[in-house]
Specification:
Chain A: Keywords: 3Fe-4S, Electron transport, Iron, Iron-sulfur, Metal-binding, Transport. Chain A: Ferredoxins are iron-sulfur proteins that transfer electrons in a wide variety of metabolic reactions. Chain A: InterPro entries: 3Fe4S_ferredoxin, Divergent_4Fe-4S_mono-cluster, Fe-S_cluster_ET. The complex is a heterodimer of chains A (75) and B (398). Chain A has one domain: Alpha-Beta Plaits (2-Layer Sandwich), CATH 3.30.70. The longest helix of chain A is centred in the middle third of the chain and has 10 residues. Chain A is built from 3 helices and 4 strands. By secondary structure, chain A is an alpha+beta fold. Chain B is of the alpha+beta class. Chain B has a single domain, classed as Orthogonal Bundle (Cytochrome p450), CATH 1.10.630. Chain B contains 16 helices and 11 strands. In chain B, the strands form 3 sheets. Chain B has a 6-stranded mixed β-sheet. The chains are: A alpha+beta (75), B alpha+beta (398). Chains A and B meet through α1 and α2 of A and α4 and α16 of B.
């Protein structure tokens, strides 16, 4: 799993940094997302999906090349 | 959709029970989560009460927030919608204008920044509790606790003198009053804008260490734009959290088992705050969006130019998303609620509001373990006609 962020879409609401601070932070400058760990360990997969789903602006997406992984339900 | 049921005319505001959305909205949600509604100006628009539909509309860039495109669900607000927007009031702008203003502020409201404010918010909370204890019971929790805490915090952040609170608290209550006339609302808004404009001009000459001074230093904004942004931040920054603290305490006092969890289990507080946000959904009506082109939402076609008014209260109780949603359960996962909105306008100050509530509720309940209502619950006066729902006063004893 690889996390991608579209900084043009990001509105700095902070849902990702609130939900999963090990993986997401926000820029001091304009509050947009900073991905601390773009390829987080498998045990965080469910939490990462939740954070991506909570993003209000749709700025976060997941690149799941592993077919088995992408078939997992979100919750 | 078929017309088996009569179209709803005018968004219902009257609540049968203190903490629940109007029954009419609940009925409509069960019938069709997105359905036709007659607007105050005769427009045939839409009412969204379902969770999935509301979330989809808020996330969709084909729906606009601009007031000049919008029809008013309430007859008394029809003229107001057509009035000019104060510069900098980005709540009612679309990209790229919205983006330009919001980006100048987002760095100030990050999760980390708000965490750094915790000690200060804690001090403010404790000093209000000390004052309550000194003055003795009974007290009005709104005046002595719920309103001062967020007002003091937002005043310090923006650089607005707290001594001027009567002015901005009065003006903002008029602006939010759904029964105020267009003239009254315009006068209150202009008054507050003039006040903030003068404050910004003074800060441009003699800047302090605060947000309004910081905006003057950005070199990108006129004084009028900063005043418009300040208007939004000041109103949103104190009315919303104040009403969550007042109404939330009332809800907990009438649900003693839930109250005990918030008071006694520090690990439960984060979740409890999300559940109170979901359950209380204090935005009484809306937001409203207007389709810029034809958009299909869950099989229903909303045509270009049609407005959709949401009920976040009904959406947050949608049984398809929150099982048993009409019950306050501070131990449920309320994550994903729409109380801060969704999409690009999702509340800029939400992380501040969370920190304030996470500190204030348990501090109040621990200081006064015997906290109780001083009047029967049905005698607590409600903000039945304000855009932000809550209690007008909450008389308490301890």
């Amino acid at each position: 799993m690889k996390i991608k962020a579209d900084l043009e879409r990001c509105v700095g609401a902070g849902m990702c940094a609130l939900t999963l601070p090990q993986v997401f932070d926000q820029s001091e400058d304009d509050g947009t997302v900073e991905i601390l760990d773009p390829e987080p360990p498998a045990e965080l997969a469910a939490a990462v999906r939740r954070a991506v789903q909570l993003c209000p602006s749709g700025a976060l997406s997941l690149d799941t090349t592993d077919a088995a992984e992408s078939a997992e339900p979100i919750e | 959709m078929t017309e088996a049921t009569p179209r709803l005319s005018i968004f219902p505001l009257a609540r049968e029970r203190t903490f629940d959305p109007p029954d009419e909205l609940t009925r409509r949600r069960a019938e069709a989560p997105l359905q036709r509604m007659m607007y105050g100006d005769g427009h045939e628009g839409w009412l969204a009460t379902g969770y999935a539909e509301s979330r989809a509309i808020l996330a969709d860039a084909r729906f606009s927030s601009r007031p000049e495109l919008m029809h008013s669900a309430l007859p008394q607000r029809v003229e107001l919608r057509r009035g000019p927007l104060p510069p900098g009031f980005f709540l009612q702008m679309d990209p790229p204008d919205h983006t330009r203003y919001r980006r100048l502020l987002t760095g100030q409201f990050t999760v980390r920044r708000m965490k750094q404010l915790e000690p200060r918010i804690h001090d403010i909370t404790e000093s209000r509790l000390d004052a309550m204890e000194r003055e003795g019971a009974p007290a009005d929790l709104v005046r002595s606790f719920a309103l001062p805490i967020p007002s003091l915090v937002i005043c310090e952040m923006l650089g607005v003198p707290y001594e001027d609170r009567e002015k901005f608290q009065h003006d903002s209550s008029v602006i939010l009053d759904l029964e105020a006339s267009t003239d009254e609302i315009t006068a209150a808004r202009d008054d507050l804008l003039a006040y903030l404009g003068a404050l910004v001009a003074a800060k441009r000459k003699d800047p302090g260490d605060d947000m309004l001074s910081g905006l003057t230093a950005s070199g990108e904004l006129t004084d009028a734009e900063i005043a418009g942004m300040g208007l939004l931040l000041l109103i949103a920054g104190h009315e919303t959290t104040a009403n969550m603290l007042g109404l939330g305490t009332f809800a907990l006092l009438t649900n003693p088992r839930q109250l005990a969890v918030v008071r006694d289990d520090p690990g439960a507080v984060e979740n409890a705050v999300e559940e109170l946000l979901r359950y209380l959904s204090i935005l009484h009506i809306g937001p409203t969006r207007t389709a810029l082109e034809d958009v299909e939402i869950g099989g229903t076609l909303v045509r270009a130019g049609e407005s959709v008014t949401l009920s976040l209260g009904a959406a947050n109780r949608d049984p398809e998303r929150f099982e048993g949603g009409d019950t306050l359960d501070v131990t449920r996962s309320a994550q994903g609620h729409l109380s801060f909105g969704h999409g690009i306008h999702q509340c800029l100050g939400q992380q501040l509001a969370r920190v304030e509530m996470r500190i204030a509720y348990p501090a109040l309940l621990r200081r006064f373990p015997g906290l109780r209502l001083a009047v029967p619950p049905e005698e607590v006066p409600m903000r039945a006609t304000s855009a932000v729902y809550g209690v007008r006063r909450l008389p308490v004893l301890w």
